[in-house]
What we know:
0% strand
Amino acid sequence: MFVGYFLRKKKFTFIKTTLLGFAFTVLIEGIQLVTKVGICDIDDVVLNTIGVLIGAAVAKLIFKTKRLS
Length: 69
């Protein structure tokens, strides 16, 4: 996915990853709001963004331990 593209770059930043995850979630929630398919909820945006942050932190730890070994 798109987030994997940012993780492969040499300069890994939480900001790029978080903004991309946030933007993608807002896009999906906006589509749900406009098309009235599904339920548009701010909780989804917040929780998905937190999930992106956790995933980015885990990915950084994995890449860091791979470089050390």
